[in-house]
Amino acid sequence: MKLAFENWLETQYIEDEAKEFLEEAILCFKVSAYRGAFMLSYLAFQIIVKHRLLRAEQPAGISDSTWTEIQDNLKLIDKWDIEVNEVIAFDNDVEKKKVKPKPSKQAFLIYRDIRNEAIFWKNKRNACIHAKDIISYPQVEALWMFIQNHLGKFIVDSGVEGFVEVARRHFDPTCAEYSNDYTYLVDTLPSVAHFDQSNELFKKLFQKIPLSHYENNRVTQFWIDLSEHTDPNTQTKLLQFLENNQREFMNIISVAPAIIRKFSGNDGFLRVFWKNNFTRFCRISRNSSAVFEIVEWLFKNNKIPQDEIESFWTNLITEDIFLFISKLSDESLLILKKYKFFEIYEGYILAASSDKWNYQFWYDQTSKLPFYIKNAELNSVVVKHINKVLNNVNTSGTFGSAIKGTLQENELQKNKFKELCSEMGETFYYDYL
Length: 433
Fold this sequence. Notes:
By secondary structure, the protein is mainly alpha-helical. Helices cover 64% and strands 0% of the residues. The protein has four domains: 4-157; 163-244, no CATH class; 263-339; 353-433.
């Protein structure tokens, strides 16, 4: 049976050298060699931090000479572990209170309680070396828990800031760190932020890796993977962040519409979305397949009450939302028909006067009315109304051209329009077509 720490280790992007020590520590633990497991685990933690410091750019607040000294010491076999411990323990706020403060070595802008905990494990390691303390399985498991919870925070220039910068460089094709494999970012993220820093972390990630600015679907998949993270706390924190940030929520569902299902139990949040922000979402998305996948889900799951369906569609109609949506798929058209869009649009235009003075209303239908004529079930009432509009309103501009072009391109609908006009004794405005 695998240990929880063993399962965690398999998901982590860790240097081979450190990973070997941790795997050996697990073997020691399983045969009750707890002192060996503890020593190897702490050594692996130091090695990981050493490599992060060696790979990092010079952090703000550390002088050139001090950074050079740190880098040089990390490369020396008899000094590297001492240097790692000094950098971890260095606290500018504490140092400033001294009579002769040392030059800053604070590379990790982490919470003081985490810094103190790291110092505690260093002291425990020293006691273990000199046989001054008893080491058993609780100490090993506690050290493992510290590593699991906080390893991600030990990134140069702080956990959150450092991680966000690493992620930005990873997805920036102009940077050397640009790569297709972002697995290590997903695996590291749960241990990056302190419990009260989650909102800050996700806010800065969205700022630095915005979905709307990247066509590459690696960025999309990165956010999808975070929303489906195996760590339930990470998944919950991200969903909570999205609940409180509608713009980021709309950005992510525009490229990954299935994520809306994760909010199925939050009807209040969904109501604000479809009632107040859906037209804005359509403009942000400009992705008809995503828009209609979400519309269908909302209707299928009864998120839009029956007595509010008309106001939902009318809002989209009056906001001229179809100007922002590309050609619709057959599936999207079926959704419009199934959930009464065309019936509601028909009622909307029938309520509008066909008189000449109402020309502005009809010019505003330049994109929607042709769409209706092309896809709806035409009937005598609406055909008579539209035909009267064409006779009363100036059709020499884009409005008339759009109607004429639609009829020319759709033979079946044109013939149906003509047939209905004939049955009513009306002269079809475009009889010559």
